[in-house]
Design brief:
single chain, alpha+beta, two-stranded antiparallel sheet, 6 helices, elongated
């Protein structure tokens, strides 16, 4: 019984320590570039987009799966419970990645729509105000490629 408490304490310690860096360590980001598409019938142009896709970190998934392999060493009622908790952790990672992907998809769509609208109107003061705000926020490097790709797609 003492060994079981030590094992459960160690697992709890690792989980708590891992939660402090959860967002960075739990997910891996992969950029995906979608090219501009022109509708042959209407001539409407869908601007290119760079989307980031999040997925559970393969190293973390492998670690949890390896830990599940060792749950057979823990006596039956507790080993099954630990195995179930680890399975829930894997499911939670998948749901968290799906949630992050949904948030990014919505944000990218909104940004592309706003940039397309601003470029279509071509109001210099509005463009300057947006550029100044982007510089102040430190996102000018990320905004420039979106503006250039939308501008090229609209030509």
């Amino acid at each position: 019984m003492k060994k079981l408490l030590i094992i459960l304490s160690a697992v709890t310690l690792f989980v708590v320590a891992g939660c402090s860096t959860f967002d960075k360590a739990a997910l891996t980001a992969t950029p995906n570039v979608t090219p501009a598409v022109t509708n042959a019938v209407t001539g409407a142009v869908t601007p290119p987009a760079t989307n980031t896709t999040y997925a559970p970190n393969p190293a973390l998934v492998a670690g949890i799966q390896q830990a599940q392999g060792y749950t057979g060493l823990i006596p039956p009622p507790y080993g099954t419970a630990v195995d179930g908790l680890l399975a829930l952790a894997l499911a939670g990672l998948g749901l968290y990645a799906r949630s992050k992907n949904g948030q990014l998809s919505t944000a990218n769509s909104v940004i592309n729509a706003v940039v397309s609208g601003v470029e279509a109107v071509g109001h210099p003061e509005t463009k300057a105000a947006i550029q100044n705000a982007a510089v102040a926020a430190g996102v000018q490097v990320n905004l420039d490629p979106v503006v250039q790709s939308v501008g090229q797609a609209m030509k």
